[in-house]
Fold Hydroxymethylglutaryl-CoA synthase.
Amino acid sequence: MTAVGIDAIEIWTGNLKLDLPGTFAPEKGEDPEKYTKGLGLNASSFPDSYEDIVTMGANAAHRLMERKGLEPDDIGRIDVATESSFDNSKPVSTYVAGCLEDVYDGDFHHANKGERKFACIAGTQSLDDAYNWISAGRNRGRGALVIATDTALYARGDAGEATQGAGAIAMYIDEDPDLIELSAEQGYGSADETDFLKPNQQFPSVDGKRSVQVYLARMREALEDYESAAGDVHPEDITFAPFHTPFPGMVRKAALLAYRHVIRDTSIEDDLAGEIGRQPRPEAFDTDDDYREALREYMDELKETDRYQEWYAEMIDPTLSISREVGNWYTGSVHVARASALKSALEDGRDLTGETLLIGSYGSGAQAEIHTETVQDGWEDEIEALNVDEQLAARYDLTWADYEDVHDAHNHEMDVDVEEFTTPDEEFVFDGWGRMGERQ
Ligand code: HMG
């Protein structure tokens, strides 16, 4: 079967930055290390007042099309994944296509367009849809443009406020991809949950502490389901494990859970047995509470072992470098984690061709998906072409007063007019309804 996967990606960050230890922590009266060490974040990306999910998505897609020499006729499908949509009828992909049609000769009248919604996992679901469409042979030689774009803003004062972020990632899905091939196997963990939701409201209602537990529970189910389809995952067969990253501290917990799961009944568990004992098994305990307590103690010890810490440093830490500087991009977050890992390998001069990534996607509400990806031999050129470092360095550093203004400006319920902090540089800008997405 022909390989199907991601041929190219582009990342577009919101043009503003909120410094968490320097600006946010003093305003909140908190220790800066709560953010840098506890949550694992240095900064959040914010959209300037002329940016929104359409402009960020169109800018990422335009950069990708230019770099890959793509014309509208090459693209048979445009899906936008977002949980920041402003329209309950017309999909954001139609707005993005409208922007792109302004700058290309052709149009996208032939392209199937849609909007995918399932919190943050919708980006991966759109990838899956593109994979299925191409694998089924319905694409007539064309590829799919998948855009994950969000302004992940929380109400001021909400515990999630420190994890905000804004940005887009565009991905071109095609046969014989240059970047990664997607596995046919997937595993899911899915349940009706109400820990994070946005029922026709601008900012989410979140039970933050519970959302962490739900993420872990669904991820464990997805891992088990993946193994039932693809066979046991062995940690030494995986090069990086990019997870959905609402903040790096969440991935610290997910990584430990995944490691504990994949070392069961392996030589790694045998090697560690002398140091921390074997993993507790439920059948050895009278009650679930006793089992859970024993498991908690085992995990606490596991996390301190050199073996785990080395695994974490090699396989997980490199996935977090961009996220630390931008916060949660919701639907784009796991795709940013993949890009971070590949970028770090490129910087280290490693050759990853043929190696395996284990991708852990997650969306509140709630669903986790595990799949694997095989790195393709064009990956270095693709990752080298990213200008994410330059974009991050060029962001305008908000003062607290600026931050409050720009946060109000993006609150659809408030009618505020705020200055632009940065000057658009050959990019699509939101220029009012009916004229949205003009290029300046
Ligand atoms: P919080 O109350 O601000 O923080 O909320 P905390 O008190 O729990 O502290 C966070 C961590 O910092 C803790 O570490 C503290 O110990 C540590 P942990 O015990 O968890 O390992 N800490 C410090 N460390 C060093 N020095 C210090 C210090 N102080 C504290 N001085 C919470 C945290 C996650 C609840 C909040 O940020 C929140 O509500 N976030 C939004 C929801 C969220 O991101 N949930 C994640 C799972 S759900 C998900 O990923 C889906 C999502 O992306 C949406 C979607 O799918 O659409 C959100």
